[in-house]
Amino acid sequence: MLDIKITKTTQPKAKPQPGDKLGFGKIFTDHMFIMNYTEGQGWHDPRIEPFQNLSLSPAAMVYHYGQEMFEGLKAYKNGDDVYLFRPDMNAKRTNATNDRLVIPQLPIEDFVQAVSAIVDVDRDWIPTDPGTSLYIRPFIIATDEFLGVAPSKTYLFMVILSPSGAYYESGLAPVGIWIEDEYVRAVRGGIGYAKTGGNYAASLIAQQKAHDAGFSQVLWLDGVERKYIEEVGAMNIFFKIDGKVVTPALSGSILPGITRDSTIQLCKSWGYDVEERKISADELLEAQNNGKLEEVFGTGTAAVISPVGKLRYKDTVMTIGDGTTGELSMKLYDTITGIQTGKLPDTLGWRVKVGE
Ligand code: PLP
Ligand code: COI
Asked: Which of 12, 43, 71, 296 is the most exposed place for a label (fewest CB within 10 A)?
């Protein structure tokens, strides 16, 4: 158990009010969690402090070689209860990322305790309008003052909180997705499965290209053959083809999404055949031409379920179904958000109550 020292702000900020447009990741709460790591000492000095700027040497290693990681999860309020969704999965993925980036391991129970503690302190910031939540951003940065390329000997683990609305402005309305055939995001043996800033920096140029062409997100192809579907910029991707649910297998170059895992479990429990396998862009075109591509949707913490209405590949723009939100996408959205917010029973044991 961490012994967390809490210092409350003396200057609380005005909280957003019901009905306010929150956007995503733009507003931050009054407090943050922070804990140091020092080689030989381990993680130490866990504390909750007023949300404030950091003071770091310009030579801090994170600024130069990107040794850092982050996570994303959400808290929801239902009456006096506050829930997290599968936070142990974020803790486990943190350690998988840390291993790849030679960042020290963080005990799973310490991660979950830190997240619960900061959410508890700022629980009055959790928005309750439909589609809103408190987005939680845990992250670790390398802080040694050193310009050599080597793992840092000191780190900061922090958790910040942002009351947020839908990730895409369109909310649950279908998005247009651009299958990128020039740039790649990740290769086998690389860092694709890790949740680290470099993957997102590598994605910006293609995202800009997609935006300029009127599409909201990029769907990546594999880095070797540039044939097989990988994932979207901030989501995993699912296809409903001829009644079956198909999603790319975890090959090492895509993020093992928690919403992906939840979606697979739910679809199986509803009797769908779920295939985790390689799926090529050509197979999608063919399914579309045969009238068998029934639904396409992305899954992610920020977006939850995001139906795809339009998919562009080279010279073809496919309209999925009739371009509106599909039945399975809707059912998944309603079920996952129902469990997250406490409106549906938690039959799979995914909800964690804060403060218990
Ligand atoms: N893929 C990428 C690249 C992401 O950034 C995210 C978002 O976290 C996901 C997939 C979905 O993962 P999760 O469902 O755990 O949020
Ligand atoms: C999330 O869904 O939590 C993400 O990390 C998406 C993010 C890159 C905005």
From this structure: 12
Domain architecture of the chain: domains with CATH: 5-164 (3.30.470.10), 175-341 (3.20.10.10)
CA distance 74 to 83: 8
- How many Cα atoms within 13 Å fall on the side-chain side of residue 344? 15
Q: Beta strands 175-180 and 217-221: pairing type?
A: parallel
Tokens of 106: 């963080």
The reply to whether ligand 1 has any atom less than 6 angstroms from the CB of 259 is yes
Residues 103, 228 contacting (CB under 8 angstroms): no
From CA 192, how far away is CA 196, in angstroms rounded? 9
Protein residue with its CA nearest to atom 5 in ligand 2: 72
Cβ < 6 A, ligand 2 pocket = 72, 234, 300-302
Could you give the maximum distance between any two Cα atoms of the chain, in Å?
Answer: 63
Which of 191, 193, 265, 301, when mutated, tests ligand 1's pocket best, judged by the most ligand atoms within 8 Å of its CB?
A: 301
| Beta-bridge partner residues of 156 | 36, 141
Residue by residue, pLDDT tens for the chain (356 residues) are 999 999 999 999 999 999 999 999 999 999 999 999 999 999 999 999 999 999 999 999 999 999 999 999 999 999 999 999 999 999 999 999 999 999 999 999 999 999 999 999 999 999 999 889 999 999 999 999 999 999 999 999 999 999 998 776 666 789 999 999 999 999 989 999 999 999 999 999 999 999 999 999 999 999 999 999 999 999 999 999 999 999 999 989 999 999 999 999 999 999 999 999 999 999 999 999 999 999 999 999 988 999 999 999 999 999 998 888 999 999 999 999 999 999 999 999 999 999 87
**302 CA to middle of ligand 2, Å?**
5
Cα 201 from Cα 65, distance rounded (Å): 12
Task: Name the 3-class secondary structure at 247.
Answer: strand
> In this structure, are residues 299 and 72 in contact, taking their beta carbons and an 8 Å threshold?
no
Ligand 1 near 115 CB (within 6 A) = no
Whole-prediction pTM: 0.97
